[in-house]
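Obj: model holo form, ligand = zinc ion.
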Amino acid sequence: MAEKKAAIMDFKAIIKELNKISSDYNSGSYSAMELAENIMLASDHVANVSVKDEEAQQKFSAQSTKLVQELTLCQKMNDERFQDWFNTAKHSATVGFLLVTANPDADRSSDEELDRLLVDFFDGEGLTDVTAHYFAAARLGLADPMRAYNMIIEDFRKYPDILSKLYTGCQYEYDPDCSHDTINEVCPICGSQNAEPFYCVNQALVKDSRFAPAKLWMECKGCGNLYAYNFPIEQRDEINGHYTKKGGTLSPRHMLATYSEIFNNIRMYNDGRKYLEIGVGNGEMLACALEMGYEADAVEICKEDCENISGALGVGIKWCDFLDFDTSKRYDLIIMGDVLEHVSQPTKALEKAHKLLAENGILWLSTPNYNSAFTRMLQFSDPMWNQVNHFTYFSFEGLKPILDKVGFDVKRYDISRRYNGSMELILKKR
Ligand SMILES: [Zn+2]
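Output (holo structure tokens):
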């Protein structure tokens, strides 16, 4: 990792040298000796990072020597030769940068000054330049998120299959005309229009063509939570589904005993048996609810998961968007596990759950918390940032006032044992 970081830092020296040489040369105000010295220095650096192509390196080295000779002997040099040399140097640096950054375990920590230099440096239109520009832009995700987002989208508009050319077998291809992203200028949680770019994720690396190559997280100044500026929200049944395989058995993802602890904690506040689960995932929590003696109903937006799980568990699961779910029943317990971050109107979903609860009913809620201990520790290395199908990202501080307003008291807060960085809340209807 340190080596990768050092390799990227080397580009700072190279880019600075090349930029200086080019501007000195173009301004004509250079001292020939100084320029010769800089050309030698840059040549050494470039040769070190360039592709391992001996023939190309020898040619480049000969080009450099020739320029330096000209400068030493006659204090000036041939324009065309200089341009050839500069283009070769730039191309070698670009390919070298790509080799370092396109490596899946490349160091992605950002050095703002260097990263700004890099995006300006890779300004060409060819595939190699645009690809290097994209990797450089992605490094600005935190320092300049809106710019990073715009640049990545623009790069993929030029070459939609950058990644398939880099990684054999990678099928990612961005089709802006078929992209179903909606652009959200208004906070889907509180309706405020006052938000600032927070962090841009290089989502192309997830290699799922249903999603744009970048996702821009916005920080809402109204409620303090985060939401995706661009998101294929209209495709939510498709992007949120398929947690199960057709027919046959279901596979647990977590220790099922985790759920007995969750249910026993809930029963300290309400031991009624009428149960509704919203979004059944792979069916494991629903299966546990049955074992714990609940009379379970469920709603699921993905048709396939609905059929597979109701087939396996023998429970009728209603296939619909929760906001369209209609019943005269009132429940003692509603489960909304890892659902809130996927839905188009999270506050409406909470209001609906409140309405469907019986008096003193409990809503059990689990959702990622971007202020969790885990996220504080891992910061932007927390894989939760890269969950392509998450639309919103709450903090407890941002969520609590919304729960208050909807009519829930927070009875218990737990750090999730199921998902690192998620919070689990027991909420009681007021
Ligand atoms: Zn908001």
